[in-house]
Amino acid sequence: MALKILVVGNGGREHCLAWALARSEGVGRIWVAPGNGGTATESKCANLAVSPLDFAALADFAHSERVDLTVVGPEAPLAAGIVDYFQAEGLIIFGPTREGAQLEASKAWAKHLMHEAGVPTAAARSFADIEAARAYVRELGAPLVVKADGLAAGKGVTVAMETAEALAALDELPRFGAAGATVVIEEFMAGEEASVLAFTDGKTIRAMVPAQDHKRVGEGDTGPNTGGMGAYAPAPLVDAALMRQIEERILAPTLTALQKRSIDYRGVLYAGLMIGPDSSVRVIEFNCRLGDPETQVVLPLLETPLEEVLLATAQGSLDRVDLQWKPGAAACVVLAAGGYPGDYRQGDVITGLEEARAQGGLVFHSGTRREKERILSAGGRILAVTALGDALESAIASAYQVVNCIAVKDVHYRRDIGWRALQLCK
């Protein structure tokens, strides 16, 4: 019998999840709460006008529709305890409990766990007293990294190359509310970033293909951090030997440390990594969910039916699953609204989507809404355009061909996605 699945969230990651699930014959119906303009038109999908934080309404719907599996996309409902709520209701749900989600919800908590597990990471100190933090910044000097302890929608991290920039970042903390009440100040790590995401059912770990995200808004990795301007997978920076090191020195010890704390962690363990010039690897941060836009390049490469992986993860039988991946590569380019990551435009008509699909592109909606037959912009990151190729170079070229089909007023995007990897491939 075909599965009924509820996906929680409204971004590009959730559209990609819905798309990946919909293409399986084992899935019959998908609801996305609240969804976006893309999920509204996806095969087998329907949007559900319920907030990701309204656990009671979501659980009631799951009961009434006999939903077989709920999949949580964003971090906020995980940190607020949606998994705990659903489990108490006897519902099957994919994602870590509130306690496990502290890996992302509190950078200070995650640092303590990493030190306990012997996981390599940057030296750091946390402060609840802003004046003490200022004194430490002046004492340490730049470069250094300033991080709001809690969830800040990808905007709470400042890589400060000057002391004045770090002090200014401390002044910005109040705008993050409770998330900025504690600050973590870290040593600066030089190198190149990569993302390794893994499924885990609390006992078994199954790593996904390595990816690389582009956080900075400008070409050449310049300008302020964003939620992500593009990604590609697999990342050639992470070869087989380095992947083994990541699994043995980072993923496995982290899971063991969670077990020692009696945390039954089921869901995605996302390691944001810094690869040093000497091929050393250290953890920048952990996330407790799939990345965005990494999801949009990893899931299109997954050969194993996604629902089988998600169910096995939620039910504790991941040891029976062997992840199979397609050959080749995937690349994703994010189209952002004018002004993003600052104040940005909304409500602009998006055209060329049908032409983009005809070109063979996968267009995942991040910040859109459907108004009658039109799709309008409704967020800072509007679309994530993904293409596959036999090799990374052809995947990137195809993604930009698809991007050229789409028009939105004042839209901007990076034109150098994958630039570091292309240099490695030469």
Question: How would you describe what is shown here?
Answer:
The protein has 426 residues and is an alpha+beta fold. The chain has 4 domains: 96 residues, 3-Layer(aba) Sandwich (Rossmann fold), CATH 3.40.50; 53 residues, ATP-grasp fold, A domain (Dna Ligase, domain 1, 2-Layer Sandwich); 129 residues, 2-Layer Sandwich (D-amino Acid Aminotransferase, Chain A, domain 1); 97 residues, Glycinamide Ribonucleotide Synthetase, Chain A, domain 4, CATH 3.90.600. 31% of the residues lie in helices and 26% in strands. The chain contains 14 helices and 22 strands. A hairpin with a 5-residue loop joins strand 16 and strand 17. Helix 6 crosses helix 9 and helix 7 packs antiparallel against helix 8. The model has no long low-confidence stretch (mean pLDDT 95).
Descriptive keywords:
Rossmann fold, alpha+beta, 426 residues, 14 helices, five-stranded antiparallel sheet
Regarding CATH, which class of the largest domain? Alpha Beta
Helix content: 25-40%
* Fraction in beta strands: 25-35%
CATH homology group of the largest domain: ATP-grasp fold, B domain
Gyration radius over CA: 20 Å
**General form:** globular
Number of strands: 22
CATH architecture verdict of the largest domain? 2-Layer Sandwich
What is the count of helical runs?
14
Main sheet characteristics? 5 strands, parallel
